[in-house]
Write a sequence for this structure.
């Protein structure tokens, strides 16, 4: 056996700084509304994100109504269809997944897992949430303005995004979208700086970086990516706002709209695409890396086995994060950029497949020789492996520039990115909620309902997105409200579309089951105790469940070992908590 | 205990069914790519190669997961192995994955090199997109397209062709009609947009590229199969995006020559060829 982190002697370094006095809220308003406690902020973030996520879920059902049963619903016109598609995409990527993983899970788990009493800057943390909330309100507001929300596609490509041929292009829709994004980025930056500083500075004694749970590594790296990537989107939104309101021409060349010469000239639509995807590709990993980290911890805990290749997992997370900044133009192979870029970006994109594949190997090697509990969190983790593997492999089609040429802008792309950054991370979100709900509420979620929820969601999503690849292979373009009468599309595609829609409605309805489970279990769920999964990480070792203000009672925990001491030979229990000094002959003999 | 075993069996079986179902769906799916009409068969070959490599990885990994779930289900008293790392195994997996990636990337970049290098004998064909229809321009007898600019677009000059460019006078304009191409003659498709992004997309051609206002983008191909093909727009261009249809025909050389002799040139279309270029750019 090779030497690893668990060999550290059972001692911790002396404290370098005195503990800082924690703020103390006194009134209802400062405790629960304008709260500075990361745990409350986490729940606020998660609640708003899930609520707006349900709006996106309804929008997806409207999209599937149109695609599965075209011309049956008069209220779905091309205009509203594009508005549904745009808002669905934008909400899911930014306002749900980014906010939930970083603002929700990040806030709840970072301080607890690293042994801190709270985030480093609680007041800024509170501001972060309220600005996010404002961004969501502006976004929702755009549904109610004349002309409705923007229908420019979630990529908001100019020139069409700010012209009259696109819904919301000449109205308030696009303006509110851009303002909302800018607000989101401001709010996120406050939270993000906080998460990074807290991980770097707030760890308890003994919690070295290489003893951090992979969940924290995933969220930490994703936050660093977001802090570097979102500014590119911010400048793009501001420049587009100028183009729209002040008639500057950052992204606008001279063009003729429906016979009229417009006053724009000299700008570059492709510049916007570079800025957008310089944000947009890291964004994929901003969503994926926390999912990678969380699923690692779920698999390890519920298979009662140490994560396989911890150091490799950490370096893979960091490596993927770094590489994600030099692959962005694989979204632009058919954009008209210089074709020689294709050589570079195809190469970097396929290189990123190597660390990603290693992570998949390490998850499944963690299962090998484990003692696998097939409970809800584990089932969702297995569902993640299936869908992420599927979506990752189809990424090898689209990342390889010559294969992308025929497939880009078809339904193949839609199927691919839903599988890899829609279904896969959301299965992790669910797994994580089933896993940490007992810590947050003190009660277990109902296991039977959870399993039904899992099977319907997982199998249903697979039935939606697996066949969809083949619609793209036929050549059906994305962002078409109906198939039209092109000769190459056989009638059977319409039948398949109806089938996919039915699967989508089923998955949508199943989410009500999840909500019911959450609300039912909050009041009636089986009491969980403080550590129902017999897990090693610090959040399960708190004196109170749910953790009280300040998290850890009078003394902060001291950390003696890495987070994956499951089934250590010779140990009395099948897990050794990170703050368990143990005895010299257990867990430290390897 | 029996119940535990039943559950793990069920989950393992579900994963196996997903694997077998996916493979069978792939093999027997009636939904497959259109018969190709150009020289880009390499692209189809690359898709097939990628299906093979990724398909094998998919099946192997998922069957491994199914086996683990079945074999290492929770049992009271079983102790999981304790194995934090296995450097040798990790190196092997890295090397194998890298080999797979190179096997996809190397031929892919080789074909990409052909795709971006246009052969000398390719003739130019211009496609112009606007909300929400297509127009086309062919170089005429001199074999060269005249220059054009969106700022020159007017009712008399729908494609913004520079009236002072002698190369433009014999250009053939196809407005509101089908484009014809000759089989066996490589073409460089020059792509232009009047307003927003579009994408000239004919599934049977495989090749496609965005059209960007202010730029001329391109791809090349050699039409190989005589027939009539639908043109679609593949880059979101506003509410009419899904309805921006057109038609392109690949003719035999004889049919093509006959067709082209019936087309009108830019000079024939413009009533007054003396439009001053300078006037137009001063006040666009």
């Amino acid at each position: 056996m090779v030497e690893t982190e668990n060999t550290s002697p059972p001692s911790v370094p002396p404290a370098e700084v005195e503990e800082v006095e924690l703020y103390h809220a006194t009134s209802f308003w400062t405790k629960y509304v304008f709260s500075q406690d990361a745990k409350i902020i986490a729940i606020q973030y998660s609640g708003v994100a899930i609520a707006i996520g349900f709006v996106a879920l309804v929008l997806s059902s409207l999209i599937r109504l149109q695609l599965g049963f075209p011309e049956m619903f008069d209220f779905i016109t091309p205009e509203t269809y594009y508005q549904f598609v745009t808002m669905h995409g934008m909400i899911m990527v930014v306002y749900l997944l980014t906010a939930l993983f970083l603002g929700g899970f990040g806030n709840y788990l970072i301080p607890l897992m690293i042994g801190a009493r709270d985030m480093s800057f609680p007041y800024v943390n509170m501001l972060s949430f309220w600005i996010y909330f404002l961004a969501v309100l502006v976004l929702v507001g755009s549904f109610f303005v004349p002309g409705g929300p923007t229908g420019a596609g979630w990529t908001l490509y100019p020139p069409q995004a700010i012209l009259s041929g696109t819904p919301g292009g000449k109205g308030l829709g696009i303006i509110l979208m851009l303002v909302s994004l800018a607000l989101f980025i401001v709010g996120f930056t406050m939270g993000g700086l906080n998460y990074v500083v807290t991980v770097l500075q707030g760890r308890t004694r003994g919690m070295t970086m290489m003893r951090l749970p992979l969940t924290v590594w995933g969220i930490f790296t994703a936050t660093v990516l977001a802090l570097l990537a979102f500014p590119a989107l911010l400048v793009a939104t501001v420049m587009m706002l100028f183009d729209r309101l002040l008639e500057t021409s950052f992204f606008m060349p001279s063009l003729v709209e429906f016979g009229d010469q417009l006053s724009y000239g000299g700008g570059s639509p492709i510049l916007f695409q570079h800025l957008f995807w310089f944000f947009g590709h890291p964004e994929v990993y901003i969503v994926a890396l926390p999912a990678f980290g969380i699923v690692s911890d779920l698999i390890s805990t519920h298979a009662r086995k140490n994560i396989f290749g911890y150091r490799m997992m950490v370096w893979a997370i960091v490596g993927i994060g770094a590489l994600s900044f030099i692959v962005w133009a694989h979204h632009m192979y058919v954009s008209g950029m210089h074709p020689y870029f294709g050589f570079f970006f195809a190469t970097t994109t396929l290189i990123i497949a190597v660390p990603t594949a290693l992570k998949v190997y390490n998850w499944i090697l963690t299962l090998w020789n484990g003692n696998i509990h097939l409970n809800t969190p584990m089932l969702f983790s297995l569902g993640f492996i299936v869908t992420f593997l599927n979506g990752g492999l189809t990424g090898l089609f689209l990342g390889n520039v010559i294969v992308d040429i025929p497939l880009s802008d078809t339904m193949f792309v839609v199927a691919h990115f839903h599988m890899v950054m829609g279904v896969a991370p959301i299965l992790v979100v669910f797994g994580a909620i089933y896993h940490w709900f007992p810590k947050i509420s003190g009660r277990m979620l109902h296991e039977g309902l959870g399993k039904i929820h899992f099977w319907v969601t997982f199998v249903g999503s697979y039935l939606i997105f697996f066949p969809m690849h083949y619609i793209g292979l036929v050549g059906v373009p994305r962002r078409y409200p109906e198939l039209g009468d092109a000769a190459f599309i056989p009638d059977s595609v319409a039948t398949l579309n109806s089938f996919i829609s039915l699967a989508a409605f089923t998955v949508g309805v199943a989410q009500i089951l999840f909500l019911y489970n959450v609300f039912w279990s909050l009041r009636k769920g089986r009491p969980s105790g403080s550590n129902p999964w017999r897990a090693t990480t610090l959040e399960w070792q708190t004196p109170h469940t749910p953790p009280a203000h300040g998290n850890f009672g009078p003394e902060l925990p001291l950390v003696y070992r890495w987070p994956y001491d499951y089934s250590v030979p010779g140990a009395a229990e099948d897990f050794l908590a990170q703050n368990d000094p143990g005895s010299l002959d257990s867990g430290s003999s390897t | 205990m029996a119940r535990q075993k039943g559950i793990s069996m069920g989950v393992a079986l579900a994963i196996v069914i997903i694997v077998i179902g996916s493979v069978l769906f792939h093999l027997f799916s009636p939904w497959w790519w259109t018969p190709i009409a150009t020289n880009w068969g390499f692209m189809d070959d690359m898709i097939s190669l990628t299906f093979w490599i990724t398909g094998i990885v998919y099946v192997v990994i998922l069957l491994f997961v199914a086996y683990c779930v079945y074999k290492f289900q929770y049992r009271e008293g079983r102790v999981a192995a304790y194995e934090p790392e296995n450097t040798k195994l990790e190196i092997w997996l890295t090397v194998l994955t890298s080999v797979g990636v190179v096997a996809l990337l190397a031929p892919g970049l080789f074909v990409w090199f052909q795709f971006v290098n246009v052969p000398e004998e390719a003739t130019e064909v211009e496609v112009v997109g606007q909300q929400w229809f297509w127009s086309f321009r062919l170089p005429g007898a001199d074999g060269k397209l005249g220059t054009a600019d969106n700022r020159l677009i007017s009712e008399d000059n729908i494609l913004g062709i520079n009236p002072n460019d002698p190369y433009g006078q014999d250009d053939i304009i196809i407005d509101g009609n089908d484009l014809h191409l000759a089989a066996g003659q490589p073409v460089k498709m020059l792509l232009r947009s009047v307003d927003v992004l579009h994408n000239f997309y004919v599934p049977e051609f495989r090749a496609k590229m965005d059209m960007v206002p202010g730029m001329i983008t391109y791809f090349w191909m050699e039409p190989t199969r005589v027939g009539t093909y639908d043109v679609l727009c593949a880059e979101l261009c506003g509410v009419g995006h899904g309805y921006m249809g057109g038609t392109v025909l690949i003719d035999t050389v004889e049919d093509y020559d006959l067709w082209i002799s019936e087309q009108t040139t830019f000079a024939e279309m413009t009533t007054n060829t003396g439009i001053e270029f300078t006037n137009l750019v001063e006040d666009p």
Observations:
- Chain A touches chain B through 119 residues (CB under 8 Å).
